Amino acid sequence: MMARKPKVATGGDLGFEAQLFAAADKLRGNMEPSDYKHVALGLIFLKHISEGFEAKHAQLLAEYPEGAEDEDEYRADNIFWVPKGARWSHLQASAKQPGIGKVIDDAMLEIEKVNPGLKGVLPKDYARPGLNAVMLGELIDLISGIGFKDAGNASRDLLGRVYEYFLGQFAGSEGKRGGEFYTPRSVVRTMVEMLEPYKGRVYDPCCGSGGMFVQSEKFVESHGGRIGDIAIYGQESNHTTWRLAMMNLAVRGIDADIRWNSEGSFHKDELPDLRADYVLANPPFNISDWGGDRIRKDARWQFGTPPAGNANFAWLQHILHHLAPTGTAGVVLANGSMSSTQNGEGDIRRAMVDGDVIDCMIAMPGQLFYSTQIPVCVWFLAKDKSNGVARDKKLRDRRKEILFIDARKLGHMVDRTRREFSDADIAKIAGTYHAWREGEGYADVPGFACAARHDVIAGHGYVLTPGRYVGAVDVEEDAVPFAERFAALQATLEEQFAESARLTDVIRQRLAGVIVPDDAATDLTRSADV
Questions:
Q1: Domain DNA methylase adenine-specific spans what residues (predicted)?
Q2: DSSP state of 7
Q3: Which residues face 412 on adjacent strands?
Q4: CB of 293 within 8 A of CB of 308?
Q5: What are phi and psi of 426, to 5 degrees?
Q6: Which residue of 117, 140, 318, 332 pairs with 282 in a disulfide if CB–CB is 3.0 to 4.6 A?
Q7: Which helix (H) or strand (E) holds 497?
Q8: What is the DSSP string of 245-261?
Q9: b/e code 53-70 from CB counts within 10 Å (16+ = b)
Q10: What is the pLDDT of residues 446-482, one digit of tens each?
Q11: What is the band of 335 on the pLDDT scale with cuts at 50, 70, 90?
């Protein structure tokens, strides 16, 4: 019997999402993906909230007709109120009209007017001259088919998954710019499965389009927990990206406190008193213009003042500052953060090791990200490594020890430029971490995982690159006796020597037959004299 092939975790598990995106992408014509994503995602969001409204509306008509047009009946169930002129059925009926762009803009404005939580979130530039009305109509028809045969929650969940898939595909289309708002699902899932944000406060100080939060809620759902058991907080400095996050969370029905300001988390911390149980973050890599010279003295810099030219250790310390006494965090950073000694970074890293706030380091493979082909690392931080509880498991005392995982050989290529982890890859990484911190069944695996004491790390100059600690993969002893292997290698080497001598003779014979003109010979002689 053949072994079952492990399930592969892709950007979505719908089956039709790739065809749907291809059809939608074809409609955009020459429009830039960075502009088109707001057009498509805005309409998907509009369809989503209209579906939720229509389902509740039908229920009220059947059970309590006089409440069908009562806004409070919808808000009581955390459903957005959608005015008549903004309902999807109205948009669909108007899809072939030349003025469909204005109809959509008016719908967005009406929805924002009656739902304060969406104020300033929805795109409202569908009537601009550069946007083709025929394309908009065809896009409405395409989106109308999503979840058409499903009822209620099933249809809305489908729309949420489509929204997430489209986000990922637009990130791929935009390349480096796409990395500013989207963290690949493989990376987020790995972090979530390791930290297990099952209950408590979840925070992301640079939340992008909110993928960390969506995966956290999925984790709770998939493990039989209650969504209301986690509270979500975030901050984002890019207003356009903040709007994407707000729609991404709303389309999932996730209640969250996501703040925006243009100054960012370092200079205007919107949640200064928050102490989170979990932090999941993918900060901008090696950002040099973070304004560090303006905040040289700050309560957050417990382990040393971060250099003004690189924000890596500012992010780590900002996140540690926001952790609850038993909180844990996962932070994606550039590989240089594990070994750099420039501008005091080595001293900060040493202080963090000695301060026992680093729990685990993972070296990730290259080509996981849309924004960069280089490999990255993930830092896992813990405010208190002496104890703790993860779900129903008591954690062991892990002080003076760090787990190193080298995951660079994991994953598979899903296209020419991008790699993803399978479910088995994620389970291998997360399972190793859980076994180590719970003290149940962990053992070092050469080439993959090693638990190193602080004295060993000090001997490596406080460099935290996993490859230094995990060593090489064990190689099984060859069944062929050494004497036979040596004789075979020697014979091969003699053959290569003989072939080299033959080729040398051929080259000499060819050169001897070359006739050099007199003037060329003179030039060669002059060159030699010089």
A1: 155-478
A2: P
A3: 420
A4: yes
A5: -65, -40
A6: 332
A7: helix 482-512
A8: HHHHHHHTT--EEEEE-
A9: bbbbbeebeeeeeebbee
A10: 999 999 999 999 999 999 999 999 987 754 444 556 6
A11: very high
